[in-house]
Structures are given as structure tokens and as C-alpha cells.
Amino acid sequence: MSEPRNDDFLDDIANVEAEELAAEMAEMDDAAIELDELRAERDEYKDRFVRALADAENSRKRGDKARREAEQYGGSKLSRDMLPVFDNLKRAVESATDEQKEVASALIEGVELTMR
Question: What is the pTM of this model?
């Protein structure tokens, strides 16, 4: 009769060891799941960072391109826009009579200075 008790004792030890092993495996599974979640989160942040970096680089390139175009074409556009104004000022000065030039000499001088 004492032998069955030994076997029960050994079975109990085996059951406890099996339960401990199962608990360790469950903890390892939980750790592996948590590790996978952290890796996925890391990859998401890395992707966001790379995209933000690319957006910043694209914005910088667009700004450089706009600046170059403004330097290249900005002056010519301004000159083109100012040409009719210059022509009108020139006609105004040319159309003024000597009497008008004497009366409004300061105004005529201002227009001539503006034309320079």
C-alpha cells in the first residue's frame, strides 16, 4: 500500500513540474507576444519618421525650386508689370505744358524722379 502513495507522490511532482513548465511557456508566449507588439510599434514609428523625413526633404526641394524660379523670373515679371506704368508717367510728363510745369513743378519733378 505504501507503493501507491509513492507513485502518487511522484505523479504529484510530475504534475507540479508540468504545471510550472506550462506557466513558464505561457509567460514566454506572453513575452513573445509583447515583443512582437513592440516590434510592430517600432516599425510603425520608423515608417512615420521616414515619411516625415521625406516630406521635409520634398518641402525643402520645393522651396528651393520656388526661390530659384523667383530669382530667375521675378525680376522680368516685375519689369513687365512696371513697363506700362513707366510709359504712362512718360506720357504725362511729355503732355504737360510749360505753364503746367511751372505751377506743378514739384509734382513733375517727383514723377521724373520716379521714372529713374
Answer: 0.42
